[in-house]
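testing teh design pipeline on a random one, pls ignore if ur not involved
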């Protein structure tokens, strides 16, 4: 531990943490007490501070940099001598050095994005141009002397929010000369020195541009331009060696313009280089414009230097020392870890002196930092109290005190900030030309050296595992340490939810050269949300000795499906006649087929509405209505109770019996009966009295006489018009025009859009009858497989059983066609029902516990054709002397309609995930590059072997999608279709909408919508675009993969949040559509997808 932490320099600068340590001095983060700000303190080691030449160098650096005022040159605040030695107080830049970022990127085997490399080059070129105009040559331009400063927003349009800052002016050559820069002296870092600098000649600004060229070559290729093993070879390579290989040989996506720029920068003769940094900046700006306008088809793995850290740096643990207890260790597996007394913290410290929400550990791209949250108790780093809400770097070995607890970070050493004070080759420590003392910045090995074997390896006993939801499956790993140093390792899981896998909770020891066994267990939950089919998973080693090492093994998980269900009655106590709802919920993860039948043991009830072949996807719910009434009714009796039973059965096995009771009532309500009885009695009394008065002349009066006129008979005439299903002739023509019937089913696309069928599918409801036959010839519902609800699909009735698909009971014997077939009877023959007694074992409805999930229920109502024109013409005429004649005539007429009434709960929109790095599009699907679980999942109805999974991610304005398509055939004509409603304005396709098609044989096409979203037009097959790409792969049997990217800014710049999307996979003889019911020419049937902003 550095003993200077906590010291105060000149009673002003309090040293808080070590940022970097070089051979000649160290750099600290410090707090300026006078101005209450963060600064960086460069403090020279005492043994060098006593030597005049090194003292002069530090003084020269301070004086030189203090004269400069440029946004890409670090600012100098103060300089002086103290008890700790000579120091410089300078601007604190917390983004880390370019060398540290390059090291991280190279260990991840990725590249910096070209745009970021060009921006760094532009910033440093302008800084050098400014310094050279002040008569200053830096002499040591290298990644270790460039710091990246994060900005809240970019300095100018087209740039990203960071600035490259040049530091360390300790080797500058002032125009008036200096003893340190006399001729014959070699100063600088050999890797980045210009030929004239290697030879000790006079230098100008073009020498610095050469060093910047070496930096840019390394930025773009992760290699140095020259191969050498020692100082002598390095000097010879710069002065006499051949030109380095073109950079496109190391990285295929490099545009030719960058080859030209680097060839000019690395020219041996200064006269062949750019004259000034401003000239170089102009060339780099032109390259940026050229790069932005060129679509890139070759995807190179890149690591954004500004990427937000969502995964913690590997290999770290937190050691917690509690008084009176042995130390404990916690593996740091989250990017942000909260500490405090409250139970909701990630690490709970339940003692006095700890605030409820006390502090946080935060992962950065270069390690960890600690943040005090502002409690009254305070957080102490190496016994110095931290300021609230001020992130402070935390290095291994540093002690954090929170109340009585002492916490120490354990893990690999990472230098967040590099100091290169010792990078000088001069007479005292080595070096006039020709001597061979190694420089402080190590000379790399040859750029084209053979790859080194990874020090760790992981092996699996097999590549594929079959899993059953709810069952634990063990997996044994073998880990080998090939290196000479003992290590501590654990395993990280990628590709599946973390809670599925039981992994070690701490690092395990792995001696050098040893092999160890490690056991894992995978248990997919028995829940409706568990996906089925093939899932890719990756196990990756996490090493404390090699934190950036990426060694792992991929395996395939084949997850089975299961069907379970719950059923319930809407009302188990009813009064006849009544309709009872039966709700069925598929609580499994696979599509199941269910049936609903009912019976009453006493055979006293009429039950209608039984159904079979009810297909429900996992998590889906539906309702079946049963109509119950008594077979015989008592005129005045009633009150009988009849039990009934409803059986809900699954084709996969399992049955639930629901019990209810039905109470009958009298045919004539008692109130009406008593009213009629009173009327009869009253009429009888009046009749008797009338008769008595009339016969006897009881009161002596004469009996009135009347001469009735002849009364005409009363005639009632009714005319009924037969119900004939038709399509409204005013809405469309029944004969489709040539070229307008895409799927060849006899209906034009316009007709299909009007009635709600799919113009790209000849049989929308998959009932074996074409949509045209159903509408124009038979009269069945083209969107309902079972129009008359008799448990037989329409196609089976027409083609197999010859029954009427519009009548539930073709023979009229009271037995539905489906029940007759199930009982082995001929549904065309009239049968006298024979009462039977059926014994059924009751089962208790199952109950499955789990998190709430979305349920969608759809109910469609089909009205064949229209309400017919019925003209009842009753004419009643009665003339008791002179009575007016009333002739009411009613002629109700209705327009034929086809109605579908969905009553669904809307499906939640999936969201496009934010990616840290763009995935590699190679058709192999690496789960580490994509979201942990698919946002889209669907399959052909009732066919689990055709599962389709879609993974959606974005990086900037580029949308990346991976599709895993299970397909038992190898038909090259199978294809994926992907539709975008760009502005989410629904309707038919408009010019902003897109339709992408990827065929399994490798054919790619894209179409744009036509016109507006209400003109009835479809897709423009003549459209083409280069703003997208797709790569196909066949990673396993019965599965193919599509990895694609779309430049949203170029192809669909108006993409809304959410936008609309539909996906279809065309198999051999099958079609899978997401969302269910989606129609290619009707964006109103597509699903919304959230296009959320990413940090």
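output:
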């Amino acid at each position: 531990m550095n003993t200077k932490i906590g010291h105060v320099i000149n009673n002003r600068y309090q040293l808080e943490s070590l940022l970097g340590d070089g051979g000649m001095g160290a750099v600290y983060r410090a707090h300026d007490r006078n101005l209450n700000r963060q600064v960086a303190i460069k403090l020279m080691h005492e043994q060098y501070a006593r030597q005049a030449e090194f003292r002069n160098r530090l003084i020269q650096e301070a004086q030189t940099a203090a004269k400069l005022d440029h946004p890409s040159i670090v600012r100098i605040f103060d300089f002086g001598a103290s008890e700790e030695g000579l120091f410089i107080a300078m601007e604190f830049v917390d983004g880390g050095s370019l060398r540290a970022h390059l090291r991280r990127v190279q260990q991840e085997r990725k590249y910096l994005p070209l745009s970021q490399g060009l921006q760094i080059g532009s910033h440093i070129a302008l800084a050098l141009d400014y310094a050279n105009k002040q008569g200053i040559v830096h002499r040591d331009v290298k990644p270790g002397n460039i710091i990246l400063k994060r900005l809240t927003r970019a300095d100018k349009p087209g740039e990203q929010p960071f600035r490259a800052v040049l530091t360390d002016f300790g080797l500058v050559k002032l125009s008036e000369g200096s003893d340190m820069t006399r001729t014959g002296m070699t100063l600088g870092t050999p890797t980045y020195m210009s030929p004239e600098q290697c030879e000790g000649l006079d230098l100008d600004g073009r020498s610095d541009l050469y060093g910047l060229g070496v930096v840019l070559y390394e930025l773009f290729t992760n290699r140095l331009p020259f191969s050498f093993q020692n100082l002598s070879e390095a000097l010879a390579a710069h002065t006499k060696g051949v030109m380095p290989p073109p950079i496109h040989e190391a990285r295929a996506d490099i545009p030719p313009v960058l080859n030209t720029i680097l060839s000019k920068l690395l020219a041996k003769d200064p006269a062949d280089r750019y004259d000034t940094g401003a000239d170089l900046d102009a060339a780099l700006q032109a390259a940026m414009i050229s790069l932005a306008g060129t679509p890139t088809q070759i995807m190179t793995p890149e690591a954004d230097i500004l990427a937000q850290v969502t995964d913690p740096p590997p290999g770290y643990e937190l050691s917690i020392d509690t008084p009176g207890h042995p130390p404990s260790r916690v593996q740091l597996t989250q990017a942000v870890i909260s500490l405090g007394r409250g139970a909701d913290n990630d690490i709970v410290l339940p003692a006095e002196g700890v605030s409820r929400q006390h502090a946080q550990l935060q992962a950065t791209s270069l390690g960890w930092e600690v943040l005090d949250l502002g409690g009254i108790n305070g957080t102490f780093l190496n016994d110095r109290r931290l300021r609230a809400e001020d992130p402070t770097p935390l290095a291994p070995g540093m002690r954090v005190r929170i109340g009585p607890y002492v916490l120490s970070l354990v893990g690999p050493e990472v230098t967040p900030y590099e100091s290169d004070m010792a990078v000088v080759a001069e007479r005292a420590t080595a070096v006039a030309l020709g001597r061979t003392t190694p420089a402080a910045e190590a000379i790399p090995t040859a750029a084209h050296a053979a790859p080194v074997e990874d020090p760790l390896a992981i092996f699996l006993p097999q590549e594929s595992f079959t899993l059953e939801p709810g069952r634990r499956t063990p997996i044994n790993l073998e880990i080998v340490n090939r290196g000479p140093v003992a290590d501590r390792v654990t395993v990280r899981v990628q590709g599946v939810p973390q809670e599925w896998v039981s992994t070690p909770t701490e690092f395990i020891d792995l001696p050098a050269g040893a092999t160890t066994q490690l056991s894992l267990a995978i248990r997919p939950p028995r829940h409706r949300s568990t996906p089925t089919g093939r899932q890719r998973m990756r196990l990756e080693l996490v090493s404390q000795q090699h934190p950036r090492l990426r060694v792992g093994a991929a395996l395939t998980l084949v997850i089975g499906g299961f069907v379970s269900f719950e059923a319930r009655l809407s009302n188990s106590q009813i009064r006849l006649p009544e309709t009872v709802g039966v709700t069925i919920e598929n609580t499994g993860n696979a599509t199941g087929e269910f049936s609903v039948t009912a019976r009453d043991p006493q055979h006293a009830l009429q039950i209608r509405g039984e159904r079979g072949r009810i297909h429900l996807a996992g998590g889906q719910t539906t309702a079946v209505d049963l109509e119950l009434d008594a077979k015989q009714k008592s005129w005045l009796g009633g009150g009988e109770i009849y039990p009934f039973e409803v059986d809900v059965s699954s084709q996969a096995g399992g049955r639930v019996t629901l019990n209810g009771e039905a109470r009958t009532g009298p045919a004539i309500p008692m109130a009406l009966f008593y009213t009629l009885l009173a009327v009869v009695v009253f009429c009888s009394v009046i009749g008797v009295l009338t008769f008595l008065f009339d016969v006897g002349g009881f009161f002596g009066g004469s009996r009135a006489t009347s001469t009735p006129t002849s009364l005409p008979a009363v005639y009632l005439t009714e005319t009924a018009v037969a119900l004939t299903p038709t399509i409204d002739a005013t809405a469309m023509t029944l004969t489709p025009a040539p070229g307008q019937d895409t799927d060849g089913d006899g209906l034009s696309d316009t007709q299909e859009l009007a009635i709600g069928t799919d113009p790209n599918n000849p049989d929308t409801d998959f009932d074996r009858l074409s949509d045209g036959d159903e509408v124009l010839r038979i009269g069945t519902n083209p969107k309902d497989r079972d129009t008359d609800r008799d448990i037989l699909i329409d196609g089976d009735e027409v083609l197999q059983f010859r029954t009427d698909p519009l009548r539930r009971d073709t023979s009229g014997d009271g037995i539905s066609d489906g029940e007759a077939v199930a009982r082995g009877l001929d549904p065309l023959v009239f049968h006298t029902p024979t009462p039977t007694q059926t014994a059924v074992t009751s089962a208790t409805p199952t109950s499955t516990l789990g998190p709430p999930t979305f349920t969608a229920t759809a109910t469609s109502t089909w009205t064949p054709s229209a309400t017919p024109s019925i003209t009842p013409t009753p004419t009643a005429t009665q003339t008791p002397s002179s009575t007016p004649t009333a002739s009411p005539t009613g002629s109700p007429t209705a327009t034929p309609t086809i109605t579908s009434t969905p009553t669904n709960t809307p499906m939640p929109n999936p969201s496009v995930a934010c990616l840290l790095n763009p995935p590699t599009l190679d058709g192999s699907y690496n789960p580490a590059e994509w979201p942990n679980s698919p946002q889209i999942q669907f399959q052909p109805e009732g066919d689990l072997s055709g599962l389709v999974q879609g993974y959606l991610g974005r990086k900037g304005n580029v949308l990346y999608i991976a599709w895993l398509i299970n397909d038992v055939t190898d038909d090259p004509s199978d294809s994926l279709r992907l539709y975008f409603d760009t502005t989410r304005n629904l309707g038919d396709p408009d010019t902003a909408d897109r339709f992408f098609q990827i065929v399994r044989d490798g054919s790619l096409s894209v179409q744009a919508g036509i016109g507006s979203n209400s003109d009835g037009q479809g897709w423009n097959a003549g459209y083409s675009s280069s703003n997208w790409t797709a790569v196909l792969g066949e990673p396993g049997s019965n599965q193919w993969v599509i990895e694609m990217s779309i430049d949203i800014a170029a192809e669909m710049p108006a993409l809304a949040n959410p936008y609309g999307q539909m996906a279809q996979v065309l198999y051999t003889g099958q079609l899978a559509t997401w969302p269910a019911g989606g129609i290619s020419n009707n964006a109103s049937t597509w699903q919304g997808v959230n296009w959320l902003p990413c940090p």
